[in-house]
Amino acid sequence: MFDALSDRLDGIFSKLRSRGRLTEKDVDEISREIRLALLEADVNVRVVKSFIGRVKERAVGAEVAKALDPGQQFIKIVHEELVATLGGTTGKLTMSPKPPTVLMLAGLQGSGKTTAAAKLAKLLKSQGLHPLLVGADLQRPAAVEQLRVLAGRVDVPFYSEATDPVSVARGAIEEAQRLGRNFVIVDTAGRLQIDNDLMDELKAIAAAVQPQNTLLVVDAMTGQEAVNVAEAFNDAVGLDGVILTKIDGDARGGAALSVKEVVGKPILFAGTGEKLDEFEPFHPDRMASRILGMGDVLTLIEKVEATFEEGEKRKAEEILESGRLTLEDFLEQMQQIKRMGPLQNVLGMLPGVPKEVRNAEIDDKDIGRIEAIIRSMTPEERRKPELINGSRRTRIAQGSGTSTSEINNLLKQFKQVQTMMKGMGGLTRKAKGKGKKGKGNKLKGPKLPTGGGLTGSGLPGGLPGFPPR
Amino acid sequence: MLVVILVVLVALVLVSAGVIVAVRAAGRSKARGPLAGEPTAPPVERAVATPTPTVDELEALLRAPDVEAPPAEVPAPEAPEIVERPRLRDRLGGTRKAFSGAFGRIRGRKIDDDTWDELEESLLLADVGMLTTTRLLDAVRTGAKETSATEPDELIALLRDEVVALLADDADRSLRLTPGEQNVWMFVGVNGVGKTTTIGKLAAQRVEEGHRVVLAAGDTFRAAAADQLQLWAERTGGELVRGQEGADPSSVVFDAMSAAASRGADLVLVDTAGRLHTKKNLMDELSKLRRIVDRTPGALKEVMLVIDASTGQNGLVQAKQFAEAVDVTGIALTKLDGTSKGGIVLAIQAELGIPVKVVGVGEGTGDLIEFDPAEFASALFSDDV
Predict the structure, then answer these.
(1) What pLDDT digit, counting tens, does each position of A355-376 carry?
(2) Does residue B3 sit at the A interface (CB-CB below 8 Å)?
């Protein structure tokens, strides 16, 4: 539905290349496209305006004009500017000199506060802190119950009482002192920022317990409204940071940029899934790539992590290292990839994939035909496709309900990719070798090739490196 | 083509996997654990029917702002009269202000580039989205040429007409309910949009109208979701059918339909677990749920996609994916009583042709009203701020 920014700009840039330098008019044209990309990512209209202003300023300057490839340089500026905006300040939770440290969560209904509270408790606990979860959402009796259950699941003590939110919060501090907990996480009721009564209540809670950290919980799917919400909550209780939830969907998450720009407070954490450990510190660079619609290799890697069993990963690695991919392996790996979700989505995460490929309608059912073909081969044929002669072909076609030309096609293309695989094997070996030497604690990943016959243009400066692990 | 894509995909995924293993191996050889801030994700199983309930289960409660209303405020037995339902216009203060605010700036000036920019910005700020905004403004431009409009007010009038035209196609916006037979309405959507609340409000209204309503707690991941629906059942006089925690939602739906048949209830409202439209297995589960309902031919009258009014452009993608999975018949737009603009309504109607049928505009049971495009449009453009 959305074109990646790089696709949009391709057309303009190919025109530019023949000229070699950017005129002001070119910059305007490109800026319009960037504006469009940002708007489609739900970045607030007004934020887009000021953002484009900054980018233009840099672009019109010498920076772009001198670059060999002005287009790529331009996207790089946008990307850098986005990263800077999203993560200019490194966010950290403030610890109180006198324990317990208090953290309060606030936000609209349905943004994911209670879940975030439990996930945060789990994360902090893993870092050696001793959190206490506090259910101060007394609007709905079940909210307290919900947090109680979650607290049990992350094995963190829980506190609430059937009085009023302010008393609960006060009582929680005492309880924390009694239990020797050094971090109190207060969950509050969801509220509209225009609901004065409830906003007053939030202020009262804040006044009573003086939280060192007041975090706004924002749904990544929020549109233009995010700015109003952030402003209102910041005005009312003074925010210290933001938690962005539900980023495991495909929303571009422009809300993150908008909120950061408007309240100037860092995005500290991101909720990345439904499970309680799917919560992590926020990565500005990934979000920037995502807003621009550039491939998200990091997410892809994480998906692989989550989907592939350890043994399967090792097997994949072996195949890769040897550079020998058989049809048997292919079939097996296909099953794994299918578990990662619709192919279209997985494809979308790959950088440098040309638009035609990315937008190709892939019906997961088509894969069934390919599977059928491979399954109709004998194990030997799968290992040595060159064995397949005319009569075998006919047999396979009959067995799989396909035609011999389809089989030819598959075999031919498979062979091409096999060649390509050999090139890739070297890369992994290199990565592994580096790792084994154990030099330094950061391992820079190799740059992925953009894939044999698929000549992708698009991603500036190759792929982002893999994160240090 | 497909083969190339697939093979390259496999290859790239292999590379990723290889790198992970390599990096892991490096980590191990150094005998260093993961940093506290960067927990390495252990391989997670992603089966749909995880026996242990997940966070998703508990997130349900967040979805129901309505339950937050202090119980005293909801005198369910003496239900409010239908006549007193709020007008959409009265509840769209936020939206109206945004529009008129922008229009205030362009009024009394002559039409220039700034005028068009302001119009565009107002629409974008309302989450209408670039595509639909451009479409609307192009139409206004054409209209302006034809009528040789010179005043910004004329443009605004043209824009209003275009919005009405966009919304007021022949879509049937009533929630279909055939008396004397079993009717099933299913509610789907991403997490936290207000599915359970919407069901609660609709149950209250239909019971009030004299229907016998069964609420099916199809969100079996979370015991709490069923509890929440239970609350609504008690409040509204509907009957709840729930399953064991972790049970197959399909069985709950099946039971609910059987129960409704034997008790002579004519309406079954099916709640489902919130799910992101990108999770294939969960979407498949939803399709299966629909097939269960379809076993009674003609019973399924509505598949309502619930969308939060503050949703941005992702709302379109949601609508598309859910429509593919369960063939959505209409949209319930919730939480429109804030300053959220709900402009995504225009985009969804324009792009996908899925009509908005009901709108949530407040916390009370009466605050779920039928969507009226003309009223919505005029509420957007009315001047009496």
Answers:
(1) 566 556 666 667 788 888 889 9
(2) yes
The nearest CA of chain A is from the CA of B19 a distance in Å of 6
Contacts of B347 (CB under 8 A, 6+ apart): B127, B128, B129, B131, B132, B313, B315, B316
B165 pLDDT above the threshold of 60? yes
CB of A457 less than 8 A from some CB of B: no
- Cα A311 to Cα A12, A31, A307: the distances in Å are 46, 47, 12
Q: What six digits make up the tokens of A88? A: 């200019």
Q: Do A448 and B21 touch (CB under 8 A)?
A: no
B73 pLDDT band (50/70/90 cuts)?
very low
Q: How close, in Å, is residue B262 to chain A by CA atoms?
A: 31
Please report the pLDDT score of residue A322 as a whole number: 73
DSSP string spanning B281-329?
HHHHHHHHHHHHHHTSTT-EEEEEEEEETTB-THHHHHHHHHHHHH---
Confidence of residue B280 (pLDDT cuts 50, 70, 90): confident
pTM for the full model? 0.72
Cα distances (angstroms) measured from residue B111 to each of B102, B118, B124? 14, 11, 19
Q: Tell me the CB-side half-sphere exposure of residue A398, using CA atoms within 13 A.
A: 6
* pLDDT the model gives residue A62: 56
Interface test with A, best of B9, B14, B285 (most A CBs within 10 A): B14
Instruction: Find, in chain B, the residue whose alpha carbon is nearest to that of A254.
Output: B312
Q: Which residues of A250-288 are buried (b: 16+ CB within 10 A; e: fewer)?
A: bbbbbbbbbbbbbbebbbbbbbbbbbbbbbbebbbbbbb
SS3 content of chain B, % helix, strand, coil (to 5): 50, 10, 35
Distance CA A456, CA A434 (A): 28
**Helix/strand/coil percentages in chain A, nearest 5:** 60, 10, 35
Q: Which residue has the higher pLDDT, B349 or A289?
A: B349
- Amino acid identity of residue B230, one-letter, is Q
Helix-helix angle B344-352:B130-146, to 10 degrees? 80
Tokens 């890369």 — which residue? A427
Give the range among A263-277, A310-324, B131-145 with minimum mean pLDDT: A310-324
Report which of A211, A199, A191, A16 is spatially closest to residue A94, judged by C-alpha positions. Answer: A211
**Are B344 and B307 in contact, with CB atoms under 8 Å apart?**
yes
Instruction: Tell me the C-alpha distance between B95 and A163, whole Å.
Output: 36
Please tell me which of the candidates A1, A45, A321 has its beta carbon nearest to residue B316. A1
Size of interface A-B (CB pairs under 8 A): 347
For the stretch A418-456, what's the b/e string if a residue is b when 16 or more beta carbons lie within 10 angstroms of its beta carbon? bebbeebbebbbebbebbeeeeeeebebbbbbbbbebeb
CA distance A459 to B4: 20
Q: Which residues in chain A (48-107) have CB-CB distances under 8 A to chain B?
A: none
Interface contact B73, partner A, CB < 8 A: no
H-helix segments, A127-241 = 141-154, 165-179, 196-209, 225-237
